[in-house]
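Sample entry as discussed:
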Amino acid sequence: MNPGSHRAPLTPARSGVPEHGRVPKYYLVKARLEELLAELGPGGRLPTEAALAERYGVARATLRLALRDLLLEGRLRRQGRGTVVAGAKIEQPLSLASYTEGVTRQGLRPGRTLVALDRLAADPALAERLAIAPGEPLWHLERVLHADEERVGLESSYLPVARVPDLDRAFDPTGSLYAHLRGHGIHLAGAEERIETVLATPREALLIGTPPALPMLLLHRRSRDAAGRPLELVRSLYRGDRFSFTLDLTAGADD
């Protein structure tokens, strides 16, 4: 007989409960808090830590562990000196669409604050990735990203000056870079993109307005024009508690 044939049929994984059945106290408090979040709804303000600890009969240290998890998951957010229920995460498609297009599709108002627009000489690594000679001039554009006036990310772009020589004069840094490029007859035709999770540096956390311990989603992109030439290198840092990314997958012919 197959040794596993007498086992009970597999069932969907129990949410957060390990096989031995022992659940940390903070996780039980988290489950109770999730019920409270559903009652309050987006924008609802939580009671104070002292009131919540008394309500659930736990130490404040235990309560803070539960709150920390919900903050990191994007279920809660800090507002002033209090904590409120967060709305749904912003879904950004993994496509050639700009940040503006992705945020606008969700009914939110995109915005950007200029940090820097500098002209610099391409170092060997940047030059290789952009298929230009070392020392050729590049634009470095760095901006804080907003959604409905909330700071949600930081974007850093490198483009050859020869491709967009008037970027410092004709471009509105609060608007879409891709729209500006299209207006100058430059169209993106493809890109390579890589995603990883990181922690923000102290500088990045200060610019985005988040604690350094908050997980971030980091996207590296190299965009190409219709001729296949590299046009832009982008490093985009998004708040992990506010963003998720979607990708439409299609089965191949042999699947």
Remarks:
- Strands lie at 76-79, 82-85, 90-93, 110-121, 137-147, 150-160, 188-199, 215-225, 230-239, 243-246.
- The two ends are 35 Å apart (CA to CA).
- The chain has two domains: 25-85, 90-246.
- Helices lie at 25-40, 49-56, 60-72, 99-104, 124-130, 167-170, 177-183, 202-208.
